[in-house]
Amino acid sequence: MPEHNYLFTSQRLGFRSWTHDDLDQFAAMNADEEVMKHFPKPLSREESAEFLDRLFKHYAKHGYCYFAAEVLESREFIGFIGLAFQSYAAPFTPATDIGWRLKRSAWGKGYATEGAKRCLQFAFEDLQLEKVISTCPKQNHRSELVMQKIGMKKASEFDHPKLQDSPELQKCVVYEIEKE
Q1: Which parts of the chain are coiled coil (predicted)?
Q2: Between 27 and which of 12, 48, 73, 128 could a Cys-Cys bridge form, CB atoms 3.0 to 4.6 Å apart?
């Protein structure tokens, strides 16, 4: 496995830019029905490649993205944790969102919480953002719990405009946190 230069690290995790070599593992994670339970559908390999391309472009434009996350000790890819600029039509956008998606074998280890705390630090200290939001479908209690654990407060509920074709997922919560 090649050595990766991390943009920053937390106690157990390294955060880095994406490479084309990530596609196999990224596509496998996005094809997992359990991982994608709170999304409209699992992604095909082609859809994952398109998502990866959007991550490259987002990083080039904004200097941040949903970063590839690895366990420092083993360099194992576990998914993504990071930030994304959101401009879809909602009362709280445009805004920078914090989000995460981890492969199943990385669940239950505190990685999402640890990584999200470190990404918030990056957002406020390095990027000098004033506020960060996070959203998820109302039934995604595990993600909502991470939002609470990292100090975010529930701001409201909304119908996500990008989930109109998935009515069971459209009712979402939005959390926010401001720079101290």
Answers
A1: none
A2: 48
Contacts of 50 (CB under 8 A, 6+ apart): none
Mean pLDDT of 51-60: 96
Q: Which residue stretches of the chain are H helix?
A: 23-31, 45-62, 111-121, 141-149, 167-170
The pLDDT, as a whole number, for residue 5 is 85
Strand order of the sheet with strand 153-159? 8-9, 13-16, 66-71, 76-86, 95-102, 131-137, 171-178, 153-159
Q: What is the pLDDT of residues 115-146, one digit of tens each?
A: 999 999 999 999 999 999 999 999 999 999 99
Mean pLDDT of the chain: 95
Boundaries of domain holding 143: 8-178
Q: Is the peptide bond before 94 cis (omega within 30 degrees of 0)?
A: yes
Burial class of residue 45 (count of CB atoms within 10 Å of its CB; 0-12, 13-18, 19+): middle
Residue 26: band (very low, low, confident or very high) from pLDDT cuts 50, 70, 90? very high
pLDDT at residue 180 in the model: 87
Q: Are 82 and 97 in contact (CB under 8 A)?
A: no
What CATH number corresponds to the domain at position 169?
3.40.630.30
Q: What domain count does the chain have?
A: 1
